[in-house]
Design brief:
disordered N terminus, 4 helices, Double Stranded RNA Binding Domain, about 220 residues, 6 strands, alpha/beta
């Protein structure tokens, strides 16, 4: 039998915790007033932004939250003409394909891939960020005896990969060359506003992965 040992913690009067918290808030306010930003936060140089990515899509909601977190003074508008910058989604695709087959002709491993293509233009149509492609690829082992777990794993991986694309998109938007292009647009090419792309062009439903709906799925079944 193992005895549980406890360590007596020193007693601190409640007012010390209040004082410590107040001091922390005062320090944060002072740093903010001096133009200090928390690590990882890079404010955008524009105040308003429009995007054709639906706000009610999971990807669109994540992207909006990430942009506002990086640049609290930037707000989204509902009309392109109201925006300083337009973030245009040119395509957003996801696919699940088999990459490994066992001796019985059944799939051993799948590959989950996400591709996001977007660009940034200012209100006059200057291309301040050329069409940029981001992708995330992950291989997933397949176990026909644990379909529910497989579906949950794919859903979790999809969410992680989607967040990775969002984070990379925001880092690209806040990069020095994009900020410089926004402030010096005259030499940049002018492009016509793109036709709004659908939120997602899917070859599968990540919450109910088609290849995993029946045990021992044959190669390529349910993918398209």
């Amino acid at each position: 039998m193992h005895k549980q040992h406890t360590t007596r913690r020193p007693f601190f009067p409640p007012f010390l915790f209040w004082a410590r918290g107040l001091a922390g808030l005062m320090l944060l306010a002072t740093l903010s007033a001096c133009g200090f930003h928390l690590k990882g936060v890079s404010p955008l140089p524009f105040n308003t932004i429009y995007t054709n990515i639906p706000a009610n899509s999971d990807f669109g909601a994540r992207l909006r939250r990430a942009i506002v977190a990086a640049s609290p003074s930037t707000r989204f508008v509902s009309e392109p003409g109201q925006a300083d910058v337009r973030l245009t989604q040119l395509s957003n695709t996801q696919a699940l394909r088999d990459v490994s087959i066992n001796a019985q002709g059944q799939v051993d491993e799948y590959e989950l891939s996400l591709h996001f293509v977007f660009q940034l233009t200012d209100k006059k149509g200057h291309l301040i960020m050329a069409p940029t492609t981001l992708e995330a690829i992950q291989e997933i082992p397949y176990d026909s005896t644990a379909l529910q777990a497989e579906q949950g794993e794919i859903g979790g991986l999809f969410t992680q990969m989607q967040q990775s694309l969002v984070d990379r998109a925001v880092r690209r938007m806040t990069s020095p060359d994009v900020i410089k292009a926004y402030h010096n647009p005259d030499s940049l090419p002018v492009t016509e506003p793109g036709t709004p792309a659908p939120a997602n062009q899917n070859n599968f439903n990540p919450m109910v992965p088609n290849p995993l709906t029946s045990p021992g799925a044959a190669p390529g079944s349910g993918l398209y």
